[in-house]
From TrEMBL:
<dbReference type="InterPro" id="IPR005490">
    <property type="entry name" value="LD_TPept_cat_dom"/>
</dbReference>
<keyword id="KW-0808">Transferase</keyword>
<feature type="domain" description="L,D-TPase catalytic">
    <location>
        <begin position="90"/>
        <end position="229"/>
    </location>
</feature>
<dbReference type="InterPro" id="IPR006311">
    <property type="entry name" value="TAT_signal"/>
</dbReference>
<feature type="active site" description="Proton donor/acceptor">
    <location>
        <position position="189"/>
    </location>
</feature>
<comment type="similarity">
    <text>Belongs to the YkuD family.</text>
</comment>
<dbReference type="Pfam" id="PF03734">
    <property type="entry name" value="YkuD"/>
</dbReference>
<keyword id="KW-0961">Cell wall biogenesis/degradation</keyword>
<keyword id="KW-0449">Lipoprotein</keyword>
<keyword id="KW-0378">Hydrolase</keyword>
<feature type="active site" description="Nucleophile">
    <location>
        <position position="205"/>
    </location>
</feature>
<keyword id="KW-0133">Cell shape</keyword>
<protein>
    <submittedName>
        <fullName>Lipoprotein-anchoring transpeptidase ErfK/SrfK</fullName>
    </submittedName>
</protein>
<comment type="pathway">
    <text>Cell wall biogenesis; peptidoglycan biosynthesis.</text>
</comment>
<dbReference type="InterPro" id="IPR038063">
    <property type="entry name" value="Transpep_catalytic_dom"/>
</dbReference>
<dbReference type="InterPro" id="IPR050979">
    <property type="entry name" value="LD-transpeptidase"/>
</dbReference>
<keyword id="KW-0573">Peptidoglycan synthesis</keyword>
Length: 240
């Protein structure tokens, strides 16, 4: 599998800126012709086997349940691919329209993750830096979000935010995006909601399944460049 990245070198402020089962053959003998499968089995769709990378993670500070892959389209499963891009290894590339995040690796390779992105009105694109990472972070919604959703007041900055855990909106890990030395308030973070991957649901942040954000957190380095490719269908993109 090979992919070519969208052109990103020309992004400016004028542009809309800113994640096989093994079968054991037992010896057996069949006498006579094979019987037909029961009616309920005829034409039944084979059940998908969850890959080991999406198993439960009981060793985590807050044990992460296994991914329900019936809710996660296989095209958004984490995979290693050939990837042609001018960006240097270590760069994170967020392809907003395709709903993929690429972690560029040496030798023309990349790790590709399925993502959920911001809904219309909260999207962003451009170039920035993944300044640092946190495991099981606290969540403090910006004052602007609290103003829109007063029910979030108990978790405001003034009240110290929400403690880490499976119900925390940032999930198991968070990567913090800065531009020109300042926090953009945008994050790449985890989520337990399989159905949100491949959709536009969050308030501008990039979300991955918890197993995928843990994998990314463990392989990316602080200070890595991040390039977010805009969705041409969006009319209101925020600059970062």
């Amino acid at each position: 599998m090979s992919e070519r990245s969208s052109p990103v070198a020309g992004l400016t402020r004028r542009a809309f800126v800113i994640g096989a089962s093994a079968a054991t053959l037992a010896g057996c003998v069949s006498v006579g012709p094979p019987s037909s499968p029961p009616p309920a089995a005829v034409g039944a769709k084979p059940k998908q086997v969850r890959p080991a990378m999406y198993d439960a993670l009981p060793q985590e500070q807050f044990p992460v349940p296994a991914v329900d892959i019936s809710k996660l389209d296989e095209r958004f499963w984490r995979t290693e691919i050939d990837y042609d891009t001018p960006e240097k290894p270590g760069t994170l590339i967020v392809d907003t329209p395709a709903k993929y995040l690429y972690h560029v690796r040496p030798g023309g390779r990349a790790t590709r993750y399925g993502i959920g992105v911001g809904r219309d009105g909260f999207s962003w694109a451009g170039r920035a830096i993944m300044a640092y990472r946190r495991a099981w972070p606290r969540w403090t919604p910006p004052d602007e979000m609290v103003a829109r959703q007063p029910e979030l007041e108990p978790y405001s900055i003034a009240n110290g935010g929400m403690g880490p855990g499976l119900r925390n909106p940032l999930g198991a890990r968070a990567l913090y995006i800065h531009k020109d030395g300042r926090d953009t308030l945008y994050r790449i973070h985890g989520s337990p909601e399989e159905r949100s991957i491949g959709t536009e649901v969050s308030s501008g942040c990039i979300r991955l399944i918890n197993q995928d954000i843990i994998h990314l957190h463990d392989n990316v380095r602080d200070g890595s460049p991040i390039v977010v490719i805009p969705d041409p269908a969006k009319r209101h993109l925020l600059a970062v």
